[in-house]
């Protein structure tokens, strides 16, 4: 079953097991990938187990490009059979003798030479009961997967802590924008009133006209909705990370939404403090976006 910890998509795990004079060594390595791509490299004698091995790994690995290396050593005599193709060997010897006599060559070890030709002597590994081989391989596979997942979880938790820290900083920046926005409107009202008085040479300014201009300015620069949505996204960010499991795709979508809101705030910014806060805000969101690319 899927655990509750957040996992990185990069990891390494190794497992070994010896049973009935057979030694299995299995290594798993993974990097980032959009899907769950598992590539298994194993001896031809174990080819029939490839699908079974992949399904076993997929019970605990859900995303990333994972390379699986399986090596198999046998110390059992009945696992190896040496076969001689006597008919082929006789034919080679006959032809070699013919060449030796017809070309008047020196005497050589014809038998040794014949043995080097293809298919004269072959080494075969008799097909063993698949269930027996699987029973010997499985403990090595389980050990490798367990260590592999543990490393991915350790890296994932480190990423989680860092992302949550960036989320806290983003919230601080959002609060700066939230607190500054009304003050910008009030400052605009004061500047506009002062400017109009200067232009009108001290004559009283129509309050209604000022109120209309200020309302237009406030509406054009209003970011209340964007701030509310960003605050909601940050709550979701923390919730998804704390819940754990397969969070990569969810967070990828969520960060896209956060980026959209920050871009809108930036486009409406009409104050140097808001601009500065927005620049840092966008930078922190981009750092999170880069980090979640490595989460399962």
Summarize the structure in words.
Helix content is 60%, strand content 15%. It has 296 residues and is an alpha+beta fold. The chain has three domains: 11-75 and 128-153, Ribosomal Protein S5, domain 2; 81-124, no CATH class; 154-292, no CATH class. The strands form two sheets. Strands 1-2-4-3 form a four-stranded mixed β-sheet. The protein has a two-stranded antiparallel ribbon with strand order 5-6. The two termini are 15 Å apart.
Unreliable runs, pLDDT <50, ≥5 residues? none
User: How many beta-strand runs?
Assistant: 6
Average pLDDT figure: 84
Broad structural category? alpha+beta
Largest sheet: 4 strands, mixed
Strand neighbour order, sheet with most strands: 1-2-4-3
* Distance separating the two termini: 15 Å
Whole-angstrom Rg = 36 Å
Number of helices: 8
* Fraction of residues in helix: 55-70%
Shape: elongated
- Number of spatially distinct domains: 3
Topology pattern, helix = H, strand = E:
EEEHEEHHEHHHHH
Strand content: 5-15%
Task: Supply database-style keywords.
296 residues, alpha+beta, Ribosomal Protein S5, domain 2, four-stranded mixed sheet, two-stranded antiparallel ribbon, 6 strands, elongated
Quick structural gist:
The chain is α+β, with helices and mostly antiparallel strands. The chain contains eight helices and six strands, in the order βββαββααβααααα.
């Amino acid at each position: 079953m899927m655990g509750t910890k957040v996992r990185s998509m990069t990891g390494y795990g190794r497992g070994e097991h010896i049973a009935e004079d057979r030694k299995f060594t299995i290594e798993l390595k993974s990097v980032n990938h959009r899907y769950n791509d598992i590539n298994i490299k194993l001896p031809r004698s174990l080819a029939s187990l490839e699908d079974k091995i992949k399904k076993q790994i997929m019970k605990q690995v859900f995303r990333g490009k994972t390379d699986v290396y399986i090596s198999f050593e046998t110390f059992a005599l009945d696992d190896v059979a040496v076969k001689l193709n006597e008919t082929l060997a006789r034919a080679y010897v006959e032809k070699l003798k013919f060449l030796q006599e017809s070309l008047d060559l020196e005497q050589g070890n014809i038998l040794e030479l014949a043995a080097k030709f293809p298919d004269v002597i072959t080494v075969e590994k008799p097909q063993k009961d698949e269930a027996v081989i699987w029973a010997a391989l499985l403990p090595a596979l389980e050990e490798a997967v367990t260590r592999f997942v543990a490393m991915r979880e350790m890296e994932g938790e480190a990423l989680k802590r860092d992302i949550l820290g960036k989320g806290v900083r983003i919230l601080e920046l959002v609060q700066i924008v939230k607190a500054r926005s009304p003050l910008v409107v009030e400052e605009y009202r004061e500047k506009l009133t002062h400017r109009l008085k200067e232009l009108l040479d001290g004559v009283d300014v129509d309050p209604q006209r000022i109120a209309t201009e200020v309302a237009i300015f406030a509406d054009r620069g209003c970011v209340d909705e964007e701030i509310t949505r960003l605050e909601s996204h940050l709550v979701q960010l923390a919730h998804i990370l704390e819940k754990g499991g397969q969070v990569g795709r969810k967070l990828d979508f969520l960060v896209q939404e956060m980026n959209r809101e920050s871009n809108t705030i930036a486009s409406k910014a009409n104050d140097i403090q808001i601009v500065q806060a927005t620049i840092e805000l966008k930078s922190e969101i981009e750092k999170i976006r880069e980090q979640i690319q490595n989460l399962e």
